[in-house]
Amino acid sequence: MITTAAKEDQSSATLDVNAIRHDFPILSGSTVPIYLDNAATTLKPASVISAINKYYEEYSANVHRSIYALGEKATKAYEDAREKTARFINAPDSSHIIFTSGTTEAINLVAYAWGRYNLKPGDEILITEMEHHSNIIPWQLVARDTGATLRYIPITENGSLDLSNIDELLNPKTKIVAMIHQSNVFGTLNPVAQLIAKAKDIGALTLVDAAQSVPHLPVDVAALDCDFFTFSGHKMLGPTGIGVLYARLELQEAMEPFQGGGEMIQQVTMDSSTWNDVPWKFEAGTPNIAQAIGLGAAMEYITSKDRTLLIQHEKRLTNHAVKSLRDITGMTIYGDFDPRGPVISFNVDGIHPHDLAQILDQHNVAVRAGHHCAQPIMNRLGITATTRASFFFYNTSEEIDSLCESIEDARKFMGLK
Fold it and tell me: Which of 30, 151, 304, 331 is the most exposed place for a label (fewest CB within 10 A)?
């Protein structure tokens, strides 16, 4: 009888990681980095770089309203990217997809265009202690400006959400629940489907920050039944400067514009203006055309692979990293909740995270050190920073071994026993 773990090992062993690595120019140079900072941003495959370059080299024109061939080609490529995005997350159609500069702008868009017009004193906004700053500060500003109250779902010692008091926190005063899908510190995958269902029972809207989950897992927004859903291109092999906000059509129609200018208007007079159809109502000015096209190419690259094999490979990498790191003297790993994504935050006794990251860099190992835009988590843990290693499907077990060997070398360098 073959166990589930054995089946996973057999399946992931069929993933040709070396072939995948050849798709990434930065992994084919004379000096190949051991890149373990994927939660911050991922490397880019040649197909994404080529798609961006092709736009600039062959049809670099503005989109919409261009009555000439280059402009029409650019418009088609841009709107094709919107269609690809809708398919990638199983949105009903492309009109649910708003292009932004990233997850941060997407959340700010909702907080401003919905929050400032719909919240009032006595209303409550519910988020979690696990949030990235981009899903805290916009709601702090909205609460300050509207008189609404911001409340938090606490976290536990193992890096999961403490839902023991959820029925008090999620109550008829709650108007929106904004939550991270996968923690960028612990890697914890939160039960967003459960929380969305509970929010719907009391008539609250829901926003899911999926910047960390979408790069690693298939997500179905129709099945989740959320109201807003956000993610960034650069964390999933795409370019920087492009993000996605999925928003229900009825909410888009009811919301005020986020920014004013060209493209988002229907008619402008000296006294008043009317707005363009959604989703273009929320895309003021010249959009990030090349970046959207690059995002579409990134999605095509991901979907061209067997995602089950990719997930199994990343899970095996994460398990190997956790086991290997725990064998290091003085090691503290934060969060041990399962299911989890390929992110591990840790500290080594006697070495500041910034010093450790600098020493690892001298060994050609790239990790992140700091508070990871999650200071409430650091405060909850009683620390100021951690070192974080995060993986993508182009990483290897050998790279994790190099990470651990470099940490051991760092301990020797610092004179630790």
Answer: 30
Question: Among 397, 312, 395, which Cα is nearest to 12's?
Answer: 312
User: 29 falls in which pLDDT band (50, 70, 90)?
Assistant: confident
Give the separation between CA 265 and CA 280, rounded to whole angstroms: 9
- pTM for this entry: 0.95
Report the alpha-carbon distance of residue 355 to residue 103 in Å, rounded: 30
CA dihedral 381, 360, 211, 293 (to 10 degrees): 170
3 state SS of 147: coil
Higher pLDDT, 363 or 6: 363
Check residue 8 and give its pLDDT.
43
Residue range 4-32+306-413, CATH number: 3.90.1150.10
| For residues 318-329, average pLDDT | 98
Tell me the two tokens of residue 149: 């109250």
Say which DSSP state 120 is in.
-
Q: Is the dihedral of CA 134, 135, 140, 145 positive or negative?
A: positive
CA torsion angle for 214, 218, 224, 230 (degrees, to 10)? 20
Domains 4-32+306-413 and 49-303 share a fold: no
Q: How many CA atoms lie within 13 Å of 391's alpha carbon, on the beta-carbon side? A: 29
Helix (H, G, I), strand (E, B) or coil at 348: strand
Domain edges within the chain: 4-32+306-413, 49-303
Does 128 score more than 70 pLDDT? yes
Going by C-beta distance under 8 Å and a sequence separation of 6 or more, which residues neighbour residue 387?
Answer: 345, 346, 347, 348, 353, 356, 357, 367, 368, 369
**H helices present in 336-374, as ranges:** 353-362
Q: Specify the pLDDT at position 13.
A: 53
Question: pLDDT band at residue 417, thresholds of 50, 70 and 90?
Answer: confident
Give the DSSP letter string of 8-74.
HHHHHHTS-HHHHHTT-GGGSSSS--EE-BTTT-----HHHHHHHHHHHHH-----SS--SHHHHHH
What's the CA gap between 233 and 228, in Å, rounded? 17
Write out the catalytic residue numbers.
373
What would the CATH number be for the domain defined by 49-303? 3.40.640.10
